[in-house]
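Possible race condition, two jobs.
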Amino acid sequence: MRYTYYPQGTCSSQIDIEMTDDGIINDVQFTGGCHGNLQGISTLVRGMKADEVIGKLQGIRCGYKGTSCPDQLAIALHQAIHQNR
């Protein structure tokens, strides 16, 4: 399954997710944002179950913002999972 999400309140403008039907993340690509950090996050979550990633990243804030790129990834994964059910 492929899913594209457009984050709100972050420097990244798009998140592209590829995962299996059983929720294993194959790839995550961010457009914009802090390239090195987002490359690291993408590498770390590869091979993980989406539910586990959501549990770890949900609610992380970036400075004064009410969200962050990791939090937006958690939201994107949640939407992708529930769209596929």
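Job #2 (started ~2 s after job #1):
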Amino acid sequence: MRNATIDRRTAETDISLQLIVDGSGVSRIESGCGFLDHMLTLFAKHARFDLTLTCHGDTAVDDHHTVEDIGICLGQALAEALGDKKGIVRYGSALLPMDEALVMAALDLSGRAGLYYDMAIPTEKVGTFDTELAEEFWWAFVRNANCTLHLRQMAGTNSHHIIEGQFKAVARALRAAVAVDTAFSDDIPSTKGVLA
């Protein structure tokens, strides 16, 4: 079973995260940030990952450290769970409609970190959540998962829908990319022989 447990403790956050890649989409999320809880719950559901997360962060300051550090932990957990990535499909993409919003996610579990983020989120906040933190989350995730991720907004006027579209689109793309190609289950999907 492909899984990982990450514990991260700093002066700003105390995080425990368990990820099962070959799961059923079950989650228990307590980040201390309600909007992020919602995003990670639907992320787990659409990726079909089992995800357990608790975080005690310095949210009295703001949600920045909590959001960024959870992105770090989720990226680390994915990288650890996939190991040498033998047999995975490697690539995944999704074009995700969320009411009036339309978001494209395309990713490569390449071993090379890169985020290409093109979003026009119309408000600075969704509830108490700073919408700029969505990009911070994905940067933290890709740097630690060592993947290339393109996120592009094709349409949308509602900030909640646009960000929700991001999390669902990435989840669906990851679900495809981490799948095992049974015809090549002993192969690394690269002519280099390594994804690093």
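The mean pLDDT is 95.
Logs attached separately.
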